[in-house]
Amino acid sequence: MTTCTCRQHDNQATVEAAARAALPPAVVARIAQALTKEYPAGELIAVLHLLQGETGFLGREQMDAVAQLLGVPAAKVSGVATFYHFFRLQPAGRFQINVCTGTACYVKGADKVVAKLEEELGIKLGETTSDGLFSLVQARCLGMCGLSPVLMVNDEVYQRVAPDDIPKLIKQYTDQARPPVR
Ligand code: FES
To answer: For the chain, which ranges sit under pLDDT 70?
Structure first.
């Protein structure tokens, strides 16, 4: 057997090596496992879950590396990552606000709570503030429907939340991160 040394194959090998270097070893191994399947692209969501578990979010460079090694278009990887709300495209903020938009909370005005959070933080659901303090995450049901609308900031639960409560809540955590100067 002869080994191809043409420039095209050299380039491909270099690109694949760079892609492997951009990913945690567990993700590279998971992709190798996926490539043994008849339809490797069907493993994309599982690979992205593992990547997010390893790195905390899905970075652009890592998503491109997954596309390269799994042999799927980069646009498909981005499409999947942006479609599912459980994928995070930015590092998590110090305070993660999980706001419930399940049916019971929605009926009690969760949409207005979300709108107020977005207004106060200047971000949309799924985003993180530029100072890295807050991430705003949509939750489906936090299991406290009788006390809706409900949200959580990290492990702290807030029940029967009204839009007017939001500025004070944000200030409480902002002050915790950056105590006011007296
Ligand atoms: S729907 Fe919001 S806690 Fe259940």
So the answer is: 1-5, 8, 179-182
Neighbours of 60 (CB within 10 A): 11
Q: Is 38 left (phi over 0), alpha (psi -120 to 50) or beta?
A: alpha
| Atom 1 of ligand 1, residue of closest alpha carbon | 102
CA distance to 113, 124, 172, per residue, from 107 (Å):
12, 21, 27
| CB 48, CB 58: distance < 8 Å | yes
The string of pLDDT tens digits covering residues 29-55 is 999 999 999 999 999 999 999 999 898
Say if CB 63 and CB 87 are below 8 A apart.
no
End-to-end CA distance of the chain: give it in Å, rounded. 76
H or E element in which residue 45 lies: helix 44-55
DSSP 125: T
**What is the 26 CA–ligand 1 centroid distance (Å)?**
35
Residues lining ligand 1, Cβ inside 6 A = 100, 102-105, 141-145, 148, 150
Tell me the CA distances in angstroms from 111 to 100, 106, 136, 149, 166, one per residue in order. Answer: 9, 6, 13, 9, 13
